[in-house]
Amino acid sequence: MASVTNLKQCPPAQQNHIPELERYPQINLKNEITVNPLGQKIYGGQSFVAVNEGVLKRITRTFFDGGFWESLAEARSAKTREQAPAIAQIGDFIAQLLVSANGFKLKIFPHTQELIGERIAQFVETRDWLNSDVRCLAWHGYVFKLAVAGVDDVVRIYSKSTNSLNIATILRSSSQTQVTCMAWRPLSAMQIVIGCRQGLCFWNVDSSLHLGRTNAPTQIFEHPDNMPITSMQWNKDGTRLVTASIGDRSVLIWQPDDGRRQAVRRLGPPGSLLKWSPDNDWLFAGTVDRVFRVWSCLHHWTTERWVCSPGGHVQTACWSPCGRFLLFVNSAEPILYRLQFVRQTLVKAFAQEKEVMPIVDLEACSIDASGTLIGGPAQQVAWDPRGNYVVITFKSTNSIAVFRTHIQKFDLHISAAYYLSGETLAEHPSFICFQPLYKDNDCSVLTIAWSSGRIQYHALD
């Protein structure tokens, strides 16, 4: 480890004024999340509630608004027990049956256990996913559109005009809860897909979809085993969408135009993270355990199986823009690793088979006289679209590390550049991504969702 880069070489970022960033929408999601006085989420078409509803009518309405589990909770509520004790007893009986059935299922399929919020939060790239105001960000690939998913299960679409009108396009539905990931469809100006607890929600983004209007996804694809989607990636022409779920051992390949679905097996433990290389020659597939795979997708899908250090899993990964290098981190150790891909041949860094090269030591260290720390186990890694910078956030420290990268044909050089901090010591980055390059944007813009709910834009030279 003596020859690798480390965080001690990181100075603080220099202030730079970029006039173009002033036209970007000013977003603070904490100010925009709307919750009714009872703390219940409000969906489109749910603005008016009858005051004197019967028990069955109330349970039925809850079913259509929030789904089966919400209606079962309503059937077992204190209000229902008071008004209709027999219905509450039936609800208790159904709940007991479901608990028994789930216990039997876990004995046979232990990998499906605990698919609740805490379990999802353990494997998604968003820090403190359960409580973060911003759960995910996604830039459109060709036009200025930024999708922001909130903890209220609402996805808001911002453009440059949003700043003056102060109105965002709203995507919300009772069929879209616990959002984990989003992706704009390549070669499409309007379509975005949202991964959530119910599966995949496809939306055609229209500026008329405003707050308060009843709207619904154009398509909803459910996971065949009713699992949440925890990671997804489009191929470059938008014809195939790959998804993973922490309760499913297979990678699913969807063809949304004709509704077809294909399972790619041999994943091993359930999948948690997918990253398609820019040219789509390779697909990285992380799991909830030590195992991860790299699939060759050129002709026949073949795979190389790799194993992390004991006690961890691949937390995050990213490809270089040229597709020749993959960076990833293991959840159990503060080290950034590199894999190299050249001419469809996986080049190992060392002579031993299935070994990768450590290139950055992320061990936590002090960055100022007051003892403020940076580093530790990494939360998320992102590579800028020009291939000049790698940005890393961390699980337990609050600053962002920025590294310069220089890609040669068969080698990658990386060195510490600077670090970014929030407006307060307590503010930490929840999610990061880069804005793609296109005609109206020729510089690399890092987009940071902070724990306070605000979105920051940072231009890299």
In short:
The chain has seven helices and 31 strands. With 461 residues, it is α+β, with helices and mostly antiparallel strands.
Describe the structure.
Helices cover 14% and strands 35% of the residues. The protein is of the alpha+beta class and 461 residues long. The longest helix is centred in the N-terminal third of the chain and has 24 residues, at 85-108. The protein starts with a strand and ends with a strand.
Mean pLDDT: 84
> Structural class, judged by helices and strands?
alpha+beta
**Biggest sheet features:** 6 strands, mixed
Radius of gyration: 23 Å
Quickly count the helices: 7
Which word captures the global form? globular
> Helical proportion?
10-25%
Measured distance between first and last alpha carbons: 29 Å
Write the layout of secondary structure elements.
Elements: E1 5-6, H1 29-32, H2 55-66, H3 68-75, H4 78-83, H5 85-108, H6 117-123, E2 134-139, E3 146-150, E4 155-158, H7 162-165, E5 169-171, E6 181-184, E7 191-196, E8 199-204, E9 219-221, E10 231-234, E11 241-244, E12 251-255, E13 260-264, E14 271-276, E15 282-287, E16 291-296, E17 302-307, E18 314-319, E19 325-330, E20 335-342, E21 345-347, E22 357-361, E23 365-366, E24 373-374, E25 378-383, E26 389-394, E27 400-407, E28 412-420, E29 429-435, E30 444-450, E31 455-460
Parallel strand pairs: 1-22
Antiparallel strand pairs: 2-3, 3-4, 4-5, 6-7, 7-8, 8-9, 10-11, 11-12, 12-13, 14-15, 15-16, 16-17, 18-19, 19-20, 20-21, 20-22, 23-24, 25-26, 26-27, 27-28, 29-30, 30-31
Helix pairs in contact: 2-3
